[in-house]
Amino acid sequence: MDAPPILGTLESALYAGDLAAAEAFYAGTLGLAVVVRQPGRHVFFRVGASILLVFDPSATERPAAPGARLPVPPHGARGPGHYCLSVAAEALDAWRAHLEAAGVAIEADFRWPGGARSIYVRDPAGNSVEFAEPALWG
Question: Which domains does the chain show, CATH number per domain?
Fold first, then answer.
């Protein structure tokens, strides 16, 4: 039996122990709109048509309370994750300049074998954040 169709990615998650620092980076430095925040648990950001979820793993690793209104299963990760933002090729130089002006270190800036360019930085939690041309995946 064939799998039913998937429309795309609706949300992706990263984990950070310091949600205020994550919000300062994603909303302050990157300009993403905060959709919702729950202090000590999460902050969510709008990224085009999808959502970036940033959770404090110490809060989300615990199971939901019995009878919780939203019985989300426990989840969490330790160590750096990865998130890639789609950026127009002609905007990558401006993004590099913006990040450097904000004091964000550029970890890598290169072209892939197919010709698409990527810039890599780290968020305050150590997650790898990539800015890449949509052509990276064809």
Answer: 11-60+78-137 (3.10.180.10)
